[in-house]
Each structure stands twice: as C-alpha cells, then as structure tokens.
Amino acid sequence: MTRSPSPDVLRAVAEQRCADELAALRSSDAGPRPPGWLLSPRAVRTFVCGGKAGKVAIPRKFYGDDALVERAIVTLAGNRGLLLVGEPGTAKSLLSELLAAAISGDSTVVVQGSAATTEDQIQYAWNYALLLSEGPSERALVPGPFHRAMTGGKLVRFEEITRCAPEVQDTLVGVLSEKLLAIAELEGAAGLVQARPGFNVIATANLRDRGVHEMSAALKRRFNFETVRPLDDLDQEVELVRREAGLGLAAQGADVALGEDVVAVLVEAFQDLRSGMTREGTAVDRPSTVVSTAEAVSVCLSAGLDAYYYGDGALTVDGVARHLAGAVFKDQRDDLTKLRHYFQSVARARAGRGARGKLWKQFHEARRHLPAE
Amino acid sequence: MSELLQEWRHEPLDRDAAVVLVPIRHHSPACARHLRALLGAVRPAAVLIEAPCDAEPLIPHLLADDAEPPLALYTTWIERQGRDEPRHHASYWPLCEYSPEWVALRTAAELGAEIGFVDLDFARMVQAGRRGERDRIDSLQDEAHLQRGRYLDALVRAAGVRDPNELWDHLFECPADRDPWAFFDGVLAYCSASRHGSDPAELEHDGTLAREAEMVRRVAAARGRHPGRRIVVVTGGFHSVALRAVDWSAESGGPPTALSPDSQVTLMRYAYEQLDRLNGYAAGMPSPGFYERQWRGEAVEHTVTAFGRALRVLRPEGASAADSIAAVEQVRGLAALRGHHRIGRQDLLDAITSTFVKGSDDVEGVAVQAVARKLLAGERRGRIPSDAATPPLVADFEAGADRHRLSREGGARRELVLDGYRKAAHRAASRFLHRLAVLDVPFAQKVRGPDFARGTDLDRIQEVWSYAWQPATESALIEASRYGASLREAAAARIGERLAQARDGDRRADRAAELLVQAAVCGLHDQLPRLLAAVAALVAEEGRFDAAVAACERLRLVAQACEPLELHRTDEVGKVFTADAVLAAAATAWQRAALLLAEARSWPDDEVQALLDALADWRAAADDVFGGSGPFDRHADEVLAAVARGTEGAPEVPGAALGLLHGSGAATDREVAVAVRGRLAGAALAGSRFVRGLFHTDRSAVWQVGEVLEALDDLLATIDEDEFLRLCPHLRLAFSQLAPRELDAVGRRVAERAGVATSRPLAATALVDADTAVRIRAVDRLLAEELAADGLGAWLAGDDAPPGGPVDG
Ligand SMILES: Nc1ncnc2c1ncn2[C@@H]1O[C@H](COP(=O)(O)OP(=O)(O)O)[C@@H](O)[C@H]1O
Ligand SMILES: [Mg+2]
C-alpha cells in the first residue's frame, strides 16, 4: 500500500492512504464501469487483491479468498446489499473500507452499529434550532449516512449491523428494496430521496457473537451473504503480519527486525489454535479467546516495541511468547490451560525438528512465562 | 492461449504432421468441441484413442445408434499367484456424451476413419505396475498427474483461482472457441508443466512408460497400414507430451501381444453420480451434470431455475424466484469480471453461494452446497445398445432368475417362500439368492428363516425372501463380474478374498468360520474343505476367548445342520469334508477356548457382556461337541472352578462361572451361599457385580439358594444412600435377567422376610425404570443439599414452612 505517512491524523482512510494507486487504476482502467462507479469491477479487484495498473504495481491488501472479493464486487454492482459475516478480526471492516474507497472514492459514509444506534443516526436528523424557527425544510435537514450515500450515489458502510435493535435494522428494508428514502415531514418532491446510481450497502456482522440480534427474513432477502474466514495459508498470513506490524512499528519510529521465521512460529501457533488441528494432525483445544490475524499483528507489535526499547532490536520467539501469554490470554483461565497444553505438546514435538526446530524449542522453553495455574 | 502458460509454450503442434498428437483432458467438453473441429479439418485415415486395446471388439457397440452415454468399459483381470488366493483387479473407463473420446469415436466413424485403441490391455497394465485401490474400483483415466506439482500451484495462485479444476475451466472451458490447433497448443503447454515435473522413476514404476511404449507400437503399426495418410492420436495430454519426442519414421509396430485368458472387458451402463464420484477420486473433471448442460449450450437461467426448484424441496420458505433472478445476474457478473465467455462451474457455484445462502457458509450454507453438488453431478444413466452382448455374469443371473421363476421386472417387492428341506428346486433357489447376497448384489433379502451363522431360528423349515429387480442390480452384477463369469464362481472367489483378508487382518477364527457357513448356504461345497482347514489354522492360534467360542459355535451349528445343508454328500467332492470333520474342528475350538479360559488372568470391564455370553455358550457346547462324554464336562468344571475363584478384573465373570457350576451340579447351594456372602462382605460393589454374573448363568440360584437373597437383603439394610446409588445399576442388571414371575417371587420372599404384606405383584409395580428412579433420587438429594446450604432446608420439611417466608441469605 502506498502510504504517505500523514502526521496530522492517526489513521488516514483508504482513499487517502492509497490515493496514488487509485489514480493510477483510474487512468489505466479501460473496462466498462457500472453506473456511479469510479472503477470497473476488474480494477476494483486489482485494488483489493493486487496486480498492475499500467506500470504501477498495486500491492495486495486483502489476503485469502479472492473469489469472495469477486463475489462481493459483483454483488455491489447488482440489486442487493452485501453482508460480510464472520469472526472478529477477519478483515470484514477492512474489506468494506477498501471496496467503498475503490468504488465510490469515499469510505467514510459509515454507520457504526450498536445497541444505541437509532434511526435518525442512519437516515437523517434535524437541526432543531432551524426546525423550530422554520419548520421542516431541506435546510433544517441533517443528512445521515444513508441520505448522503443515496444522494451522492455512493456506498454506505454499516458496521456490526446485527448489534442494532431489530426495528432499527428493519428501516433498511424499504430503502434497499425501493432505493427510496421518504421524509414524511417534507412535502412534495423534497420528501422523496431517490438513490442515485452507485448507491448500495456494505454491512458487516458477527453472527455468533453474544449480544447480536437475528436479522429479519425480509432484511436477509435484501442481502447477499458472504462468509469471511480467517486466513489459513501460512505464507500469506506471515507476510501480512510482518507487513502490518512493520508499518505499526515504523509509525512509532521503532526500527525492529521482524524475522520471518519468528513470525512464522507465532502465526502457525495461531493457525493451530484457531483450527483446532495442527499440520501434523494433532487435535488441540481451541481457546475461547479470538486468535485472529489482527491479534497476531498486535502481539508482534508489542513484542517488537519491547525488543526496540529493552532488547537488541530484533523480534525473538521468547518475546513473542511472553506477549502472547500476557496480552491475549490474560483473563481466561481455561484458555491459559489450553495454551499451556499447546506449549507442552505441540511446541515440544516440533522442538529441534525441521527447519524451524530451534525456534520451536525456544517457544517450548518460553512456557515459563505463562502465569502459574 | 493465456499468458499464464507462456513459460511452457514451446514448439506448437505441427499442423501438417503425419501423426497428429491431440492432447486432451478426459471429460472436457472444450476438448471435445475442438477435437471435432480438428478431425473435420484433418480428415485422418485412422483415429487412435488411449483406451485398453482389449476393448477394441466393443467399438462397434459404442458406435451403435441406440448406445446412450454415460457408458463405461469395465475391465477385469484375475491375477493367479501360485497357491495364494488369486487377486481380482477391475477398473472403469467411462464415457459421456461430451467426452473427447466419445466424440472422437463418433466423428471418426462419420469420416470413415479406422478406429483403434492403443493403450496396453488391462492385464498388462497391472503387470506393468498399475496399482489399483483395495476397497473400490478405480478409473483408468486417472489424472492425478495433472493435478500436482509446484508449477501448477504457482499457476493457481497467479490466476487467483482456488484449485486446478477451476484453473482448467478458466483457461480452457470458459473462453470462446478458437482455432483448434491453438487450443491444443495451450493444452499441451498446460500438461508439459506437470510432465516435466514428474519423476521418471515413478513413471517407470507405475507402468506409465510401458503404456506409452505400447501406444508408440500401435501408432507405428497403424502408420504401416495407412502409408502416406494422416493419423490422429487422442491421448491424455500427459502422454502427448512424451509421444511428441518419438521419431515415427524410426518406429515399427511389433506383433500384437497375446491377451491373458483371465481378463475381460465389458460394456456397462454408467451413471453421472458414479462418474462424479469416480472422478472425485481420480482427480478428473467433476460435475458431469454441469458440463453436459454447458456442452448442450443450455442457458444459465435453466440451470439456476433447476437449482431453485431442487432447493425449494428442502427449504420451502427460501429459494424464491427473486433469488433465482439475483443468481442469474450474479453469475453473469462474475463471468464478466473473470473474463469468461462461457459460464464456469465455479461461477455458478459462487453465484449460488452469494444469493441463496442466508447466513454463514458452514451452517446455512451446507444444505445449499449439497443441493448444488447434486444438481451439478446430474442424474443421467446410460443405456447399452441392444446388439451388445450381455456380460456373462449378468447372463448367468438372468438364466438363474428365469430357472427359479423369479421376476426380473422392476417394481414392487415380491415374496418368495422356499422349503429347502423338502424340495431340491427350492434349495437351489435359496443358494442362488445367497450367492447374490455374498456378492453384495442388491436383489433379494431374507426376511425369515434359519440363520446358520448366528444360530437363530434353526427350527424353522422355510426361508422367506423378499426381492425386486432394480437398476442397481445390474451394475452391481457387472462390478461383481471381476470375481468370475458365473455366480457360483464369483461367490466362491469373493469368499476366498474375504478369507485372505481375514488371514492378513485380525485373524479371528470366528470370522473365518462365518465364511464357512456362507459357503455352505451358497452351496459351494467344493470350497468347504479348504475353508475348514483355514478355520482350523486360525483356531489353533486364536487369542480371544469369545472368538474361539464363537468359532466353536458356528462349526457346531454347521455340523448339526448337516442335513438341510446337504453336507453329508460332500464326500464325493471334498475328500475329508464330513460332519465328523466339522465336529472335530469344533472340538478343537472348544479346547482352545478352555485353554484361553484357564490361562486368563484378568477380564476386561468393557467386554463383560460378550464374555458372559461366551462363557455360557462354551459350557453348553461341551456336551454337543463331545457327544455328551463325561471327561469334557469334568474338564469344563475344573476350569470353571478356577475361574470362579478368580479375583482379577470384572467380577461378573467369576460369578457367571459359579453359576454354571451350580447349574450343572458341580457346585452346591452351600458353596454358592458362602461365595455370595463372602464377595458381598469383601466389597459391596464387586459383590453386586458378582451376583449379576451369577444370575446371568443361573437364575434359579435366586430361590434354590435362599441365602443369596438374604445376603443381598442384609447388605441393603446396612448401606447408606450413596452406596446404594452406586450399587443400583449393577443390581438392576442382575435382577433384570429374571422373568416377571420370578421377580414376583423374589418380592414376596423379601416382603415375608421384612414382615410386610404385599398385595400387588412386584413386577407390575410401575418402577418406571430403575435408572430414572436412581436419577430422581440423586436430584432430590442434591436439591435438598442446595436448599440446606442456602438456608432453605425448611422448605422440604413440610407444610408448616411458609414458602415465601423470611430467609437469610
Ligand atoms: N485476510 C486478511 N487480509 C488483510 N488483513 C487482514 C486479514 N485478516 C486480518 N487482517 C488484519 O486484521 C485487521 C483487523 O481487521 P478488521 O477489518 O477490523 O476485522 P473485522 O472487521 O472482521 O473484525 C485488519 O486491519 C488487518 O490488519
Ligand atoms: Mg469490524
């Protein structure tokens, strides 16, 4: 990703971070564009999955399931909304941001779903001072994300949609099927907002979490569901974790060597714990804590900072193991037991064997950092 | 050709070559279309196809007007190996209407070209190193070679597809048709990568090189037959790569090799489901139903609608017309995004996933995927042409069915009553049906009648069968034809194979004895002597008591059923096989069991029930096997006495031994009473289990030895509730072996002893079931404890405690 570190903001949005890439894609894009789109579907795919825009190399941003990305893009060009479902940390939000940036050039039209989300935060609200003085008028209207997306012909992102109360969710049914927002308070044409081409919804949800609401059948019908799975390709995940942690460390001015093999040990341990099965075919107990790629990045980040300030500037297996135990598993007694067992059995079995045998040995020895039972 | 293949692009196919090598992938409609175009352009004198050469006589049938794919060549070979059991090899070579080979056959015939099959015959393929699968019949069109390799993995990644099948579709099935030469240049480049990545030693070892040598020989021979004319050679692309290196002018065809007398090729009708499964194993193209739709140019709307309809059966509320419309839109969009001129299999599957799955793919998606897989597999079944000879085993079946007056029309099941004791014709029909059963041919099922393997219903005189012909009957018969050309021969070979498996496997004597029984009911009397010898050999080294007893039982039953099974007549064929010989083997098994019993040190807990049954059978067999001769009874009692004294392992076993001794009079009432009291006093739990064993073999002990009941009653009076809950399951097992009337008697005795009157018969009391009762008690108690701990104990005390009254936390 071409990231121009911008000193003024903590995190630039995708269309800022990747402005050069998007420009290159736009100028080299010969494919037909769906109405209201800034890029052709194929160029969107290139933006997300990597490739070339003329002479400019476009790095991959979303790893794993390219077919899913293609399905998502095609869905957004059609009549239905897109709902990305999956465990936390599988890059649902990232993918939704990237798609919105590429397709609409704007990833900031967002609803953050929660139990407290109300209808007016989604569609529109009123400036009460004006409302009282002038009565309902277009001037008094404060457009919400859906209003903005519909009038602008853009994608609106709806994060964690299933956290919203069912009746709030269901206000989308009409919008999605009629592509029409009725503002009862306004008269005549002003009371009907019709969506311009390019409008659609990308929602994300975690279906199995506690505290989520089942979607109504009517709303489900308006979405195509796509399940985002955790990465299972070791090389890809290692590459991703190294890159993300590297960027994070660089942002903090910490120059740390993130050895590929060290990261690989961590990632493989995460993949084992996530899937409940090692590559040797040993069953392991899956912890209830989410061991996502995002967690792997954050472990590398904190272990990296540790190495920078207190170590010799290189990430070590020992440091990784210490932060793993401390950060990820600190609150869950059962999970600690499972982790301890993993260190005892799987790490020990790999110690001294194969290309990374030495590192696995260190990993096994690092079990002493685990809090006592 | 895609730029992905540039790396392997080498010399293109020679458009003017005398020998045109056409590389194909089996069951690829794109290959079939381009091959048809190429054949039309070349107009060769001969079309040579990679198929087993011994199937050449079937070519006219493949060309018959009424032949309808899917069909398969079914090749079999019996490998005789000295004194060992022969091995039965079999493979399929399937064809469907869009197979390049099918199209090659038909187009060649239209062009008047000679048609030849140029692969090794099946027997020599096996001899050259081809390894089949042990537990299923595999495919001669295996394409595993094309599915592996580092280069292929890199291609898959570079193309952004999921697997080699999707890659193949992306490169070859989905683009628009083009010049056939350019198309096959691409296929060749694709196959070159895997050919160059494969290990020559392995190709030598698995027979690939020998097969290619044969192809060269046969192509060269055809060249000799058609001097100056062109020849097209259609083979899997993997072979074409190698054949390109051949200098044809230097080759001459050798003389044809003699075929093995033990090999056979038949034409059988096949089904898409079978092909889908077979290709799943063989790394071939999956989903024949999908590719047939593609081949016929069916609009995707039809496919999607068919899917929606199929899904609605399963999920009436979902799968609306709106979903189908969205899916069509989605599939078109995906194909466009991926640059597909034709809709690919994954495009369709992806669209279905997007639009029909309302939830997570591993929950809501499972049923949808299953329906999709089934639709894509398809349901078509082929038809063999009327002029094709019926395969010998099928013919034998038909003759047999007609002889026994069994209907060969499908439809409702019919019933058949056979009186094998009195009527020779019925006996023959029974054997016919048993042979089919041994071969797993779905036709008839025995509903009632004596079961000599299990020893049940032996007093029945008649066998009742229910039967119906079904399409699967015929395919199963054809598959079974690898075992032989007649049912008699095939059933014998199948039993022989099972015997070999038993010998190589767990070596259980009882399993071998079961095969002996099977052979006997199938009327395979000539097999009996060697089966008996095999059983005897396994018995001699049997290590499990229950297996030795079971073997003894089977043999004993065979000997007893001498007459209905007509064993007395086997002397003519098998010299040594007489009822006496069987009985002698049974005696050996009995003695083996006695030895195992005497030597056993401990009894495993998890096999208690099997051991108890075996123990009873073993004791009961002593008289039968040895013609009631006293010494063996005495021997049995000595061994049992030692077991009854044992203290290791499951205590039920010594209990059962004591029961047997008591039953035969070898142990007195007094001895039983002492043993029970002693065991119960030692450890209540083990004692209860001992009593269960005792009752298992000797129910009468419960009244004949009044003290047994008294001892139990005393025990119950002394133990606390916890202990009772622990013992209860075992006591329940012990008493559940008694008949209702016996239970009543027990109840009365206990009541008398306790001095209470019983008005109702105990067995009729709604004891619901004892396990539930125990659980209810346990819950009761837990509740009481919890309440007490919470200071609410008073709630249970009675009415005077107000439920809503003040309580302290
Ligand atoms: N497959 C992936 N491709 C790219 N980044 C990923 C992937 N999986 C996880 N990540 C990393 O995890 C981070 C968290 O992802 P996020 O979008 O917040 O997940 P979610 O919304 O699914 O909970 C991403 O920003 C990225 O750094
Ligand atoms: Mg998120």
Description:
The complex is a heterodimer of chains A (373) and B (809). Chain A is 47% helix and 11% strand. With 373 residues, chain A is of the alpha/beta class. Chain A folds into two domains: 65-227, Rossmann fold; 234-369. Chain A has a five-stranded parallel sheet. The radius of gyration of chain A is 24 Å and the shape is elongated. The two termini of chain A are 44 Å apart. By secondary structure, chain B is α/β, with parallel strands linked by helices. Chain B is built from 35 helices and eleven strands. In chain B, the strands form three sheets. A four-stranded parallel sheet of chain B has the order 1-7-2-5, sandwiched between helices. Chain B starts with 18 loop residues before the first strand and ends in a 12-residue tail after the last helix. The chains are: A alpha/beta (373), B alpha/beta (809). Chains A and B meet through helix 3, helix 4, helix 10 and strand 11 of A and helix 14 and helix 15 of B.
Summarize the structure.
The complex is a heterodimer of chains A (373) and B (809). Helix content of chain A is 47%, strand content 11%.
Helix content of chain B: 55-70%
- Unique bound compounds: adenosine-5'-diphosphate, magnesium ion
Largest sheet of chain B: 4 strands, parallel
- The chain-level mean pLDDT of chain A equals 90
- Give the beta-strand count of chain A: 11
Which CATH first-tier class of the largest domain in chain A would you pick?
Alpha Beta
The number of distinct structural domains of chain A comes to 2
The side-by-side strand order for the widest beta sheet of chain A comes to 4-7-10-3-11
CATH architecture of the largest domain in chain A: 3-Layer(aba) Sandwich
What is the CA-atom radius of gyration of chain B, in angstroms?
Answer: 36 Å
The third-level CATH topology of the largest domain in chain A is: Rossmann fold
How far apart the termini of chain B lie comes to 82 Å
Number of helices of chain A: 16
Q: Which pair of chains has the greatest number of interface residues, and how are they split between the two chains? A: A-B, 27 and 29 residues
| Proportion of residues in extended strands of chain B | 5-15%
- Content of β-strand of chain A: 5-15%
- Low confidence ranges of chain B: 571-576, 763-767, 798-809
Count helical runs of chain B.
Answer: 35
